[in-house]
Amino acid sequence: MSIWIDAPKNSAETYKVLTECAAYMYTITYEDLANSVARVRRDKKRPSAVSLSRPLGFIRDYICRPKGLPWLNALAVNKQTFLPGDSFIPPGARGRKKSPEDEFLWWRGMVLQVYAYPWDQLKL
Prior knowledge:
Layout: H1 11-23, E1 28-29, H2 30-40, H3 53-67, E2 76-77, H4 100-116
Parallel strand pairs: 1-2
């Protein structure tokens, strides 16, 4: 059975776009992610950038974390700050209180892991 059957709308398309970003080693703004998701959708409809938070969380919580993989959602960033949004790190995953600098370094490390992972070889 496919993991995408019960996934939030646009999850498979978001995953496809993010794995392309990882292959070419770049982050993508939420706005550009929405545009790219529209490109790979059959109907070419563009989702709102905000609506992609559910697919991003799904990819993190149902694909990456359970399999011990780097968090692919780390590549999606805010257009102004070029950093992920507040929901990048899920509740309960922060552990002890970290400074903003620690979280920034942790995110950068995660991005490097995402770039290094062979996403094209992962079978879902």
